[in-house]
Design brief:
The chain has 169 residues and is an alpha/beta fold. One of its GO terms (biological process) is cellular response to oxidative stress.
Length: 169
């Protein structure tokens, strides 16, 4: 896999991990069972916004990045977005707890795990020093990439922000 760019077909073998939200395990201290999320299959006929962060519960990610998507979720839906997903290298338990800490319920935003940053490394957008996922955003429209940008400035949330994505829809 190489860096994603507009016009590319989203890879056909992308699998993340996550813990589906449920009413009975909605409390932050509740654990669910991680399952594989076959993104390539799930997203093949949908408009998807995928944004990636270096780590759950980190300052920039928790204060500047995720809240923008939560706030703009209605605007993203108005633009025809079916799925919004955040990705980090953290395990599915941490990602699930992070979603609950942000009071995200149901499938409003999927909190997905990229174990070992496999996907991010595959597209060349993992941090070489830490091995974590990079900070980036991708719009996938029925299997085709229409937007793909990575932040090159440490701590910046510009190209991968909800506002930048909205402007590109």
């Amino acid at each position: 896999m190489t860096t994603l760019k507009p016009g590319d077909t989203f890879p056909s073998d992308v699998v993340f991990q996550y813990i589906p939200w449920s009413e009975d395990s909605g409390d932050i201290t509740s654990c669910g069972i991680p399952i594989n999320y076959k993104a390539s299959e799930e997203w093949a006929n949908k408009k998807v916004v995928l944004f990636s962060v270096p780590g759950a519960f980190t300052p920039t990610c928790s204060v500047n990045h995720v809240p923008g998507y939560i706030k703009n979720l209605p605007n993203l839906r108005e633009k025809g977005v079916d799925i919004v997903a955040v990705l980090a290298f953290n395990d599915p338990f941490v990602m699930s707890a992070w979603g609950k800490a942000n009071k995200v319920q149901g499938n409003d935003i999927l909190f997905l795990s990229d174990p070992d940053a496999k996907f991010s490394k595959g597209i060349g957008w993992a941090d070489e020093a830490s091995g974590r996922t990079g900070r980036y955003a991708v719009i996938i429209d029925h299997g085709k990439v229409s937007y793909a940008q990575i932040e090159t400035e440490k701590g910046a949330v510009k190209k991968s922000s909800a506002d930048a994505v909205l402007a590109s829809l």
